[in-house]
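Ticket #4471: structure output looks truncated?

Reporter: J.K.
Steps to reproduce: submitted the chain below (288 residues) through the standard prediction queue, then opened the result file.
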Amino acid sequence: MFKKLLLLVMVLSLAVVGPSAVLAGNGAGTAGEVRMGAPGNAGGSRQLEVRSQAGVQSNAEAGEAGGLMQATRRCLQTMQRTGKPAREEWQALRDNLARLKQQYRLETREENRAEIRAMFKQAVQMAKEQGEPGEMENLLRDLISLAPGDPEPYRELGNIYRNRGEKTPKVFCDGNELKPDVPPVIKEGRTLIPIRPITEALGATVQWNERERTVLISKGDITIQLQVENRIALVNGRRVELDVPAENINSRVFVPLRFISEALKAQVGFYPEGQIVTVVQEAVQAQS
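Returned output as attached by the reporter:
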């Protein structure tokens, strides 16, 4: 009887203690989950902090660009009021515009890009009105590099060349002037240029076959084959008749600029004011 009573007490004790132990285990497990979750929360906080810092940096850069644009506007206004700016004022303006030119390449907002171009045009006009052809030429070159597809700067620059009596053709590719060691020539109303400067500027490769006097130009899925003094060229195997053939001039192979550029999907323009030929690739044209 005593043994049965003792056994009953033990069973009742286990029934009371068991849930407590289970609850304690659940509590420990919950605590463990919180501890494991703590680093994750810290990681999330760090990510938020990094994003916050990136946002602050982006805002700071935008603020710096806005401040630079505002400073350039004030500089232009002051110089216009002065009537005849001093060299120091021109230098300050050049410094601001040089920084804006760098900012332009990073700028993603079209309204800011348009305003930067407008400030360069305003500076060009001021240099023109005040008889500063040197300043005007440099500003026009900068403006052309920003917007290779804009025709007006080429016309203004061409007028400067014409007034100086320069007759050698000038070639600009994507806003940058090409300066081959042997200058371009005009034959039968067509501009011929040494082959490597133009093809390299357009991202193409060139192979020369001395025995057959042929040139093979390749870019992506486009191949162009020309032979010196032959008016028939091949573009992806298709025969094309040239207005002027490739020529050997001063130990350089000269090729018709318009034909090569258009075959490589670039747009070509000509400004007779200063014998300026422009070549602009489609991707660059879209950004102008």
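Triage note (M.O.): checked the attachment and the full token line is present. Helices lie at 2-82, 87-106, 110-129, 133-146, 151-163, 195-201, 257-263, 282-287.
Status: closed, working as intended.
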